Amino acid sequence: MAAYSLPEGFTEFDMFTYGSALLVGGLLGFLLNAISILAFVRVKELRTPSNFFVFNLAVADLLLNINGLTAAYSSYLRYWPFGQNGCALHGFQGMIAVLASISFMAALSWDRYHQYCTKQKLFWSTTVTMTIIIWVLSIFWAAVPLMGWAAYDFEPMRTCCTLDYTRGDRDYMTYMLTLTLLYLMFPAYIMMSCYDAINKHFKKIHHHRFNTKVPLRVMLMCWGPYVAMCVYACFENVTVVSPKLRMVLPIIAKTNPFFNALLYSFGNEFYRGGVWHFLTGAKIVQPDIKSKPK
Q1: 290 falls within a domain
Q2: What does pTM read for this prediction?
Q3: Cα–Cα distance, 63 to 53 (Å, whole number)
Q4: Is residue 294 part of a domain?
Q5: Nearest-CA neighbor of 209 among 219, 195, 220?
Q6: Residue 130 falls inside a structural domain
Q7: What is the CA radius of gyration of the chain?
Q8: In a 3-state reduction of DSSP, which class is residue 161?
Q9: Mean pLDDT, each 10-residue run in order, the chain (294 residues)
């Protein structure tokens, strides 16, 4: 067997620890999101236009879980076994999952605003159109680095691949800042606006059905530090940051699918009944949001 040297700044224990973190987070997220997807497919009552957003979020997050599990596998091998082309494909696939996941979180906040505040019914035509747009744009923006605007390369541990933030050139800067505006700041603004309106509605009826601050906080907790590092790399030499810290941040980001499954599938009053029916066979009880509780 060929011998592979450890990446600079990492020990055998580090490789095992980071790989194990990716494995545990990936398996937990994969299991919960797979249950969410199967519930939507198997339970007829669950297949509504609004729940289709939850289903697509679970699909996007499942893709990110697969990305993380691939990284865990190569971390245990101590090297990347799929070559440079495999690295680019790994980064491309992960980027599609991330962009789609964040987009569907914003779409769900918009849908929840209408469910609770305006009581406007969402039609299949609207949901399908928005879903197609989200996936097409996610694939387009993820493919841009393959065309020469920025690039995908290895992360510090050299067992997984992402956008090469060590370049710091004009191409990377313009791409990263554009991506941050379109896929972090804009979705965060939508989520903040929608959930703020929902919170005001809950206060008005004196009944809080869920914590409206949690979804945005979870997204920013998971992706905020990693994006901040990538933006920092636009202006400063990011390699001065410890390689171990630069690996911790994407690992934290990859926990987002696990939290999303808890929030949007198992914690969603319009979806969890279908999940429970799928797991136990118990009858679905549709939540009543029309009237103020007595």
Answers
A1: no
A2: 0.94
A3: 15
A4: no
A5: 195
A6: yes
A7: 20
A8: strand
A9: 73 94 97 97 94 98 97 94 95 98 98 92 95 98 96 94 92 96 97 97 89 96 96 93 93 96 92 90 71 46
